[in-house]
Amino acid sequence: MHTEPTTFSAESYFATQPSPQHLQQDVDKVRDFVTKQAKEGRSVVLVTSGGTTVPLELNVVRFLDNFSAGTRGATSAEYFLKAGYAVIFMHRQFSLQPFSRHYSHSTNPFLDFLDIDPPEAAGAIPRISVTPSKRADLLEVLTAYKEVHARGTLHTLTFVTVNDYLWLLRAVSKEMAVLKRRAMFYLAAAVSDFFLPTQKMSEHKIQSGKGNLSIEMDQVPKILKPLVDEWTPGGYIVSFKLETDQDLLLPKARQAIERYGHQVVIGNDLHRRKFEVVFVSKKLVPTLPPGIEQTKEATQQAANSFSEYWLRINLPEHPLPDAPVKEIEEDIVQELVRRHTEWIENTP
Amino acid sequence: MHTEPTTFSAESYFATQPSPQHLQQDVDKVRDFVTKQAKEGRSVVLVTSGGTTVPLELNVVRFLDNFSAGTRGATSAEYFLKAGYAVIFMHRQFSLQPFSRHYSHSTNPFLDFLDIDPPEAAGAIPRISVTPSKRADLLEVLTAYKEVHARGTLHTLTFVTVNDYLWLLRAVSKEMAVLKRRAMFYLAAAVSDFFLPTQKMSEHKIQSGKGNLSIEMDQVPKILKPLVDEWTPGGYIVSFKLETDQDLLLPKARQAIERYGHQVVIGNDLHRRKFEVVFVSKKLVPTLPPGIEQTKEATQQAANSFSEYWLRINLPEHPLPDAPVKEIEEDIVQELVRRHTEWIENTP
């Protein structure tokens, strides 16, 4: 079956694609969280994290996915919490989460560091405790985790498909609009550029043995534009560009800033993203009065009107096992908090 | 770019697609494990688990995936270990694993049940221990986990792509051939039917904004046939069929048995798989001497020559929170162990 590709605006997308089942419950909880944080005078950052899926069948067996373990988002969320922000952590189901990320079931399984103590009395259930060599590390993570839960500054919600993500992002950003300039958006999720409209999906599992698989997908609408202009005017918006071709990094980042008019694009190369990123923003240039044409120099100036800030950390070439490794997210968050604070203060 | 679909036999697949980087190290470890188990007289089951990916780019950003958390495989592995089998657990990176599966970071995060005890002396690092209400459950899992590790009866290896999976399966099954009838294969992984040959992959991230995405994939070669005939003759092979259309379940399962000549297909419907599966096998019918043509009756008999064994468990409609839930994998493994044992004993 060959169908014509459809071009979706954000508006036509939401008018034709079904909303996720628990959207209203999710939104109600976000509203309570935002109200509490606003009352307590905290800035709130929405951190999106992990990849989105594009189901190919209505009864989902197969889907297209984007590579992302959720490291960037989960790590950054921890540093935002440390910096005093409240965090709405909107992440792909089963992707990494702040705090527990240190104990992946594969690389640092927690069952390995639990000891069964000798029972204190005959017949008593023995105590289980953390093995002494792991105590210090875990204590740090656990203390931070318990503090965040006691303060109530972390709210978690999950998505799976790109459709879940788009509906949630719109709803959550509208809830955050009341925070005005105190709202930050840190859009680190790896969102699919393509999707398959429900109307084109096959109901059952696509059968093999009938030749080869051929999929045609439509483009996901660009939602940064309505996010900036309509859903949450006033928010400080940071988006990410991941490329595998270094040469495309800056042009793509500049294009995004130009097109959507938000505050920062953080560009990163797939293979260098753990130790190098670039912040791309628009420099503030005076607008020409209407009727006056731009001179050649002004055009040149406009082309140079992006600021680029490279952030690099040195990773040890041969790290010692168990030696703490500097995380670039610490510096990314520090720089963003600085910029966000300045931006709040400079608002008339 | 439109290229003609290629049909791959298992042979042409392995001749043209690159082997994964750590294949040899992985195989060496499997060989040691198999040697140890053979010496100690244990039966060994290879459990494959989780979905495989199909990368769309050489620098992987996007991939096709198959729905699977790895619950079936991880749960079954635990019951095989309980039944005295040694288990090679070959699973998708980050999918569920035996034992730790009970403590998913999302549904039962382990940080929630750790208490920081008051320090025993000033300046000492405080002990961290499991909160009393969680002790009994965790003790059971932890005890089983520690026993398995002490005995050395669980070996874990991981795959991500369908290419990793195919190369590993071939290599591991060849290593298991020395076990003869004591080797079981429990192929619960959700393996893609389609793939994109390296030769057709784009090097960099597919750019959006150039119209819609169109992907054409080739069929993954059917590897059950060479597994049965060449790689591990003598092994007891169990494969799975997952369908979303109930009506296709039995025909598809019978077709697989007919085509590949292995021992059991376990058919399951996507929405009923937690409480209902069907074992499909070939009944042993006497072969006609050469030169004698089949009568109509014999043809009819051949059509009826499959045995079907439905396995169902009753799930409580309103389960009590924290009440232990019966897992269908317990019964699946019990039935397979029974069949496997009988099959070993009846071998001339």
From TrEMBL, chains A, B:
GO molecular function (one): catalytic activity
SUPFAM superfamilies: CoaB-like
GO biological process: coenzyme A biosynthetic process
InterPro entries: CoaB-like_sf (IPR035929), DNA/pantothenate-metab_flavo_C (IPR007085)
Top-level lineage group: Eukaryota
Domain (DNA/pantothenate metabolism flavoprotein C-terminal): residue spans on this chain: 176-274
Family: Belongs to the PPC synthetase family.
The protein's name: DNA/pantothenate metabolism flavoprotein C-terminal domain-containing protein
Annotated organism of origin: Hypholoma sublateritium (strain FD-334 SS-4)
